Amino acid sequence: MELTGAEITIRCLQEEGVEYVFGYPGGAVLFIYDELFKQEQVKHVLVRHEQAAVHAADGYARSTDKVGVALVTSGPGVTNAVTGIATAYMDSIPMVVISGQVPTSYIGEDAFQEVDTVGITRPCVKHNFLVKDVRDIASTMKKAFYLAKSGRPGPVLVDIPKDVSQQKAEYSYPATVNIRSYNPQTHGDIGQIKRAAQLLLEAKRPMVYAGGGVVLSDASKQLTELVRLLGVPCTNTLMGLGGYPADDKQFVGMLGMHGTYEANLGMQNCDVLLAVGARFDDRVIGNVGHFNSVPRKIIHIDIDPASISKRVKVDVPIVGDVAHVLADLLSVLNSSKQKPDAAALKDWWKQIEEWRSAKSLAYKNSSEVIKPQYVIEQLHKLTHGDAFVTSDVGQHQMWAAQYYKFNHPRRWINSGGLGTMGFGLPAAMGVQLAHPGATVACVTGEGSIQMNIQELSTCKQYKLPIKIIALNNRYLGMVRQWQEFFHGNRYSHSYMDALPDFVKLAEAYGHAGILVEKPSDVEGALKEAFARKDELVFLDFRTDMTENVYPMVPGGKGLSEVILAEDL
Amino acid sequence: MRHIISLLMENEAGALSRVAGLFSARGYNIESLNVAPTEDPTMSRMTIVTSGSDEVIEQINKQLNKLVDVVSVMDLNDGDHIERELMLVKVHAMGEAREELKRIADIFRGRIIDVSDKTYTIELTGSGSKLDSFLQAIDHSLILETVRTGASGIGRGDRILKL
Where does the record place the ACT domain (chain B) (predicted)? Predict the structure, then answer.
């Protein structure tokens, strides 16, 4: 049967089982929008800015194990989407972005709303395509979904010129896909896995360091089993939170720039380190030279060979899907007669507990001014640690990561790699649509929320009862903190003057807003907000203006060169 | 250290820019890069001469392999290989120099492929250092123009890079 390119595009989405497309129409995608209109299977969510479409698709993908889909028009539609695409790329989120392009005969002529989409997005996608022949749409879409989801996941962009979406071709969706140049390795080398098992069994001070790869690979179960079997401490990266249950006694908290004392010192002082789906980035290990100054054996499991020995030299590299490799490692360990060195582990735990007793996350609460940490603790308590929590970027993000104890994967949704302010609210929309009955909280700041505040309108249209937890300290808090520590208290352009009345703003968009100024009102306000199950409630918490995030490993410093709250 | 990397990639629009973009985005050096179709019209062969520490070269190989359009990658320095480069040199060839240039070209097994009253155009192939030596051997002031292809390389004996 002959179909137009636009019809084929929508058919492909149906074939892939796509539930939601987040998008914004425009000239180059009019034929595709016309086909969306004629069917009901694929639901379209109209955002208010293309960046939000991509973040919403991203939040949808992170909170499920599905591919997020966004649809934007050519030119500014694409350039607006780039921040979202780069965000997904840095965090390896499976996503397909469909963009309209000017008609093929206009390409290169600086036509109205023309940009070199494939060129602009090339450095921040896993792969991209410009479809110049309508007969190639179906096979390209099949490849796009396959690439997005397989191997190390990532965003894939398909650019479709307007005339191609209008032309007709025979349609059949390919049953299989074969890309000769792309064969991601899923199973790890068994020899290396045995070497890893041996190192772990002989270790005196072993440590497990698990990242976002555990979440993406749905390997929490295997990780938890492994950590318990070995009796070792486990830390998660910002991206890995929820990959190991935070309530577990073997969990030593998040590591990195704002990680716990015990996690960072454990990382620095261990003799065998098992890195699982993590990539030793600068916010995690700080100064590479300092990290390498202590000898330790490193085992690194990652689906992406290029992530191994990129920043830190690895002794036992294992390329493969984390879930598969951990399962193999578990079966090797289970069939081994050797057991972990109990005496050495006992000493190691004694050391860890000593570090833990520093209580690096302790803070002094106040009855005068709202402490941001307290708000997150109350949020955790009221939602029983079971909410989906999205965040923007800055101090509030770190406090949410530190004080909301995530026991399950895919509950903590934040932009870890790119650090994109404006991510939280649109991501929460994607999460809420994927989980209609669930509690979704967006922890944000008064700076970040204004970067995509227009999405309050989308939330109204689609009745998304997100709870916005704004930790409003009137400062770009993380910038202010760095200025206090490293720039002689010169608060250059970090004070947020002329803030809107967020309660009125929420009301103007048809939502509810609550202003909270006293610590004694925090719990009540949260309770009230969560009781309003069908409404979006914007909670404007006026928090301590000068609170800092501790502990802190300053940029360029080593993990043991940490600033603790009590040091100041 | 200098490395010569040979790769096969899909003959798709934009494949070259993916490789070039990778090098600039990650701050890798490119000394030379050449690309042309192979006997299989769906694939192109690219030869890149780069330099860096062992760690950087390892990353370059891995990052190239990660590009979806790249079919296979071989670091020719990992084994025995042959390397050739083509150079075309146009020289000012009058008076005594005319004879001398012909003689030096012969010594380097170069060929004169175009002649005018005032100039020779000499074709020379060999390793990069041989071409450099030729340029040093002739009077620098006589050189009007040089065109070099950058190195191409191939493994010795049974060492092949194929799909």
Answer: 4-78
Least CB-CB distance to B66: which of A130, A179, A306? A306
Q: Which residues of A are catalytic?
A: 50, 112-113, 162, 478
Nearest Cα to A203, choosing from A257, A115, A274, A99? A274
For residue B159, being part of any structural domain is answered with no
Is the pLDDT at A538 greater than 70, yes or no? yes
Q: Which of B21, B58, B72 minimises the CB distance to A123?
A: B21
Q: Are residues B101 and B56 in the same domain?
A: no
CATH number at residue B36: 3.30.70.260
0.90 surpassed by pTM? yes
Total domains in chain B come to 2
Residue A390 pairs in a beta bridge with A413, A442
- The answer on B147 and B92 residing in a single domain is yes
Q: Are A306 and B17 within 8 A, CB to CB?
A: no
Q: In this model, does residue B153 exceed pLDDT 90?
A: yes
Range of the domain at B120: 82-154
- Answer whether A123 touches B (CB < 8 Å): yes
Instruction: Give the ipTM of the model, two decimals please.
Output: 0.93
Peptide bond into A551 cis (omega under 30): yes
- pLDDT of A567 strictly over 70: no
Query: Residue A280: pLDDT above 90?
Result: yes
**Beta carbons of B68 and A126 less than 8 Å apart:** yes
Final residue of a structural domain among B79, B105, B132: B79
Give the orientation angle of helix A322-334 with respect to helix A220-230, to 10 degrees: 30
- CA atoms of A245 and A234, how far apart (whole Å): 10
Q: What is the dihedral of CA A454, A68, A387, A244, to 10 degrees?
A: -140
Co-location of B66 and B106 in the same domain: no
pLDDT at position A565 is: 87
The answer to whether residue B13 scores a pLDDT higher than 90 is no
Show residues of chain A in contact with B60, CB under 8 Å: none
pLDDT tens digits along A376-396: 999 999 999 999 999 999 999
End residue of a domain, out of B58, B79, B100: B79
CATH of the domain at B86: 3.30.70.1150
Q: Could you tell me the pLDDT band of residue B163, with boundaries at 50, 70 and 90? A: confident
